[in-house]
Write a structure and sequence with these properties.
Its EC number is 2.7.13.3. It comes from Entomoneis paludosa. This is histidine kinase. It catalyses: ATP + protein L-histidine = ADP + protein N-phospho-L-histidine. This protein is an alpha+beta fold and 641 residues long. It has four domains: 125 residues, no CATH class; 157 residues, no CATH class; 221 residues, Histidine kinase-like ATPase, C-terminal domain (Heat Shock Protein 90, 2-Layer Sandwich); 67 residues, Rossmann fold (3-Layer(aba) Sandwich). Helices cover 41% and strands 21% of the residues. Helix 4 packs antiparallel against helix 8 and helix 9 packs across helix 12. The longest helix is centred in the N-terminal third of the chain and has 88 residues.
Length: 641
């Protein structure tokens, strides 16, 4: 049939094909009534198939008798040649498809195949090193990240090690301060107390001699002559040699050297000897010292000792601040929890500052301002203002804090001492304590459990918050100063307002203590020269009905109170003083012995344990033990347990 069909082409670029489709009636498929001819021009098909950017593809058209190769460049057929002209080294990348269906081929139709192969130009255009480069970059990034992580880990570990070493060194330094610096300073304080006590005793004895001398001057002449004669006979008495205690009796005094201790005591003679003895020349010299001739010098000496003691106490206070700061920084500040009668403790602590405030001509007022509510069985809802804790209603007095009594007193003392320090003469300080009950939306009773220092566990209902508010008319603060007030080592105009005293850690430590009690602390001021108001808020609880508040506070009553040093009528105790510092033991034993107490000493915890066991076996147990904390062999807590 191709002899009767002509394919007209614009340009001859390779073979063409003709496809005939028979036309037959639907009822008689065997009757041929016509043919539909469709030309297939391969080069035109290729040009319509490939994108114009395709370059370097060899299309091999293969029939049963012939093979033709078309080269595609820029999406068009660039050249045509007979034979299979694809590049053999890229033949394995070729793709082949049968153009003649298998069923037609079985019916006798010729087989046409089309294969496409990339050329070097195609490989050059479409092959890329990006995957390899990407892999190299990815591996490089991973290696770099690993190296960076290792370096980071190294430096972080190094920093951690340095911090650990620094913290260890800091702890060692703090222990050094506590043991090697604070302990000697405490010894100085005790030594000053001993010295002041001894001087005061000598002075009072001299005053007593003067009084007796004056009374003797009024005796009859004959009696005075008898006293003088007896005195002369006593002055010529020989002193016994070889005794362990030598005494030189002189009038109303006995100067003794006991056991080589080197301690001089001025002890009045017995009453019967005082009546008929005339003071000797040495006694008269002592009498002159106590008779007012040198009273002024004595008072100046005592004043100097007071100043030295005040400076030493200030140094000890700074060291205590540093140690407390370290504990707060490391979250190691231990609270000895007990149930505290907040109103009485507040009043007791404020009372400590009344004399210093009066000396500075500063008015110090205490105000109790509890809110009367129906929840506390009050009829009115007015705010009552009282000046004494004993006037408070029982429902308010029976509210308590759960905290460390000494630490809370430390916070209050710090705030009040600052207020007194920055308030000029003629100013005033108001110490107010109020109670804020739970609001209506918080009326649900919140029961919280606590383990007290005594080991007892209690469950208490929270009633609200107690509010300490200390307001002064002092120097005041600016907004910038208020922002940094509770920071580390903060002091404002230290030389001008504080005479260079203080560590600047007091408020920082107070903040840490308050927060450890689950409270808040803040300050307000209207500006420089307008005073400052400090506020402390702490949770307050209803005291258990089955226990007396005062009984629960027995172990804390001594905190903040002034203890009388008078030994009149006091019970004489058998005490054990345990301290590895010899000076501390000497001074403490001296102070206690002057009060009539019997004292034994131990320089470490092991000796203390042995002495306690021995005393218990002998049935003569110690009344009390004064135990140091840091000691060799066995420390204080271990020995105590």
């Amino acid at each position: 049939m191709t002899d009767h069909v002509t394919i007209v082409r614009l340009a001859h670029r390779g073979p063409a094909s003709m496809m005939f489709q028979p036309v037959f009636p639907a009822k008689d498929p065997r009757q041929l009534v016509g043919l539909i001819a469709s030309p297939i021009i391969w080069d035109e098909i290729f040009e319509n198939v490939f994108n114009k950017d395709v370059d370097g593809v060899d299309c091999v058209l293969e029939s049963e008798t012939k093979v033709h190769t078309y080269n595609i460049a820029k999406g068009k057929v660039e050249s045509f040649a007979e034979g299979a002209l694809q590049q053999t080294h890229l033949q394995h990348l070729g793709q082949m498809v049968n153009l003649t269906p298998a069923e037609l081929h079985e019916m006798g139709a010729p087989m046409y195949k089309l294969a496409m192969y990339p050329s070097d130009d195609f490989q050059k255009t479409y092959s890329t090193d990006n995957p390899r480069n990407g892999a190299i970059v990815a591996v490089s990034v991973m290696i770099f990240a690993a190296i960076l992580f290792l370096l980071y880990d190294y430096f972080v570990r190094r920093e951690f090690e340095e911090r650990k070493n620094l913290l260890d060194a800091k702890r060692q330094f703090m222990r050094f301060i506590s043991h090697e610096v604070r302990t000697p300073l405490n010894a100085v304080v005790m030594g000053l107390n001993v010295l002041k006590s001894e001087l005061q005793g000598l002075f009072e004895s001299g005053e007593e001699i003067v009084q007796r001398r004056r009374s003797m001057d009024h005796q009859p002449t004959k009696q005075r002559e008898e006293v003088s004669q007896r005195r002369r006979s006593m002055d010529h008495q020989p002193i016994e040699k070889g005794s362990s205690q030598s005494s030189i009796k002189s009038g109303s005094f006995k100067i003794e050297s006991k056991g080589g201790s080197g301690i001089l005591e001025a002890n009045p003679l017995q009453e019967e000897k005082r009546v008929d003895l005339e003071p000797s020349s040495s006694t008269r010299r002592m009498s002159l010292r106590g008779s007012g001739v040198n009273n002024r010098g004595f008072r100046e000496c005592m004043g100097l000792l007071d100043e030295i003691q005040k400076g030493t106490n200030a140094a000890v206070a700074v060291l205590n601040d540093v140690l407390n700061y370290d504990k707060i920084e490391h979250k190691s500040l231990k609270l000895e929890l007990s149930l505290l009668p907040v109103w009485q403790d507040f009043e007791r602590t404020i009372a400590e500052f009344r004399i210093p405030a009066a000396k500075k001509d500063v008015s110090l007022n205490t105000v109790f301002e509890p809110l009367h509510t129906e929840t506390l069985s009050f009829r009115d809802v007015e705010r009552a203002t009282l000046s004494r804790s004993e006037d408070l209603p029982d429902a308010v007095k029976n509210l308590c804090l759960v905290g460390d009594s000494s630490r809370m007193a430390q916070v209050l003392r710090n705030i009040i001492s600052n207020a007194l320090k920055f308030t000029a003469a003629g100013g005033s300080i108001e110490a107010k304590l109020g109670f804020n009950p739970l609001q209506d939306h918080d009326k649900r009773k919140r029961v919280e459990k606590f383990k007290l220092n005594s080991g007892r566990e209690v469950a208490l209902e929270r009633q609200g918050t107690v509010e300490y508010r200390i307001t002064d008319t002092g120097a005041g603060m600016s907004e910038a100063q208020l922002q940094s007030l509770f920071g580390e080592g903060v002091q404002f105009n230290a030389n001008q307002l504080q005479a260079g005293q203080g560590s600047g850690l007091g408020l920082y430590i107070s903040k840490g203590i308050v927060e450890q009690h689950e409270g808040t602390i803040g300050a307000e001021s209207e500006g420089l020269g307008h005073g400052t108001s400090f506020t402390v808020l702490l949770p307050i609880y209803a005291f258990p009905a089955d226990q007396d508040l005062e009984d629960s506070h027995l172990d804390q009553r001594g905190v903040g109170s002034t203890v009388s040093t008078s030994s009149a009528g006091a019970e004489k105790l058998r005490l054990l003083v345990v301290d590895d510092a010899l000076s501390n033991r000497k001074f403490l034993v001296r102070l206690l012995s002057k009060k009539g107490h019997e004292c034994d000493q131990a320089e470490n915890g092991q000796e203390a344990v042995d002495l306690v066991k021995k005393s218990m076996e002998e049935g003569n147990a110690y009344s009390s033990i004064l135990m140091d904390f840091e000691m060799p062999i066995i420390d204080g807590p271990t020995a105590t347990s």
